Amino acid sequence: MTRVDYYNDPNAPKANSIAVAVSAFIQDDDGRILMIRRTDNGLYSIPGGQLELGETLAEAAVREVREETGIECKVTGVIGLYSDPRHVIAYDDGEVRQEFSICFRAKQVSGTLRTSNESSEVDWISPNQTSSIQIHPTIKLRIKHGLAEEKSTFFS
User: Fold this and answer.
1) Does residue 55 carry a catalytic annotation?
2) Strand ranges (DSSP E) for 70-139?
3) Predicted confidence (pLDDT) at residue 2 exceeds the cutoff of 90
4) What backbone torsions phi and psi does residue 15 show, to the nearest 5 degrees?
5) What are the chain's domains?
6) Which residues lie below 8 Å from residue 147, measured CB to CB, with a gap of 6+?
7) If 61 and its partner were Cys, which of 12, 22, 101, 126 is the partner (CB 3.0–4.6 Å)?
8) 54/105 Cα distance (integer angstroms)
């Protein structure tokens, strides 16, 4: 299913749903960030996805990282809670979802990088490389908060 992210766009379609989503900000020992290139919109992102029935938020983050990257991780904290109604995601089935996402800080515990049906590329990206690849502004915000020296939880 394809998707289009709208942010601060007066011509964006109106949201007709909301779903709980999670993402994980993971850095390796060299400070590089685990990132994927999404198959549904072609943009680079930190791994993440929707909460499924019967799992905790942290379990969802671990599962999404595993599914999209091949990396096993452990959640170590919360970076932020993101619910900006100016960010909507339109899917080709007619759903238009308001953003509601919890971004976790996590550490790699094992695994080998691999792609999936949701990720056409998976790599460790240095923070200074993030300005030269296509990343949605809301993901750039999560990366900025993940890299921040101040470790207080961001929320919108």
Assistant:
1) no
2) 71-82, 87-91, 96-98, 101-111, 119-125
3) no
4) -65, 140
5) 3-151 (3.90.79.10)
6) 127
7) 22
8) 22
CA distances from 42 to 113, 124, 129, 135 (A): 18, 17, 17, 9
Geometric angle at alpha carbon 50, from 26 and 47, rounded to 5°: 25
Q: Is the pLDDT of residue 117 over 80?
A: yes
Tell me: the pLDDT tens digits for 138-150? Answer: 999 999 999 997 7
- Beta bridge partners, 72, equal 110
Rounded to 5 degrees, what are φ and ψ at 122? -140, 130
**How far, CA to CA in Å, does 93 sit from each of 14, 101, 152?**
14, 21, 37
- Catalytic residue, candidates 67, 99, 121, 149: 121
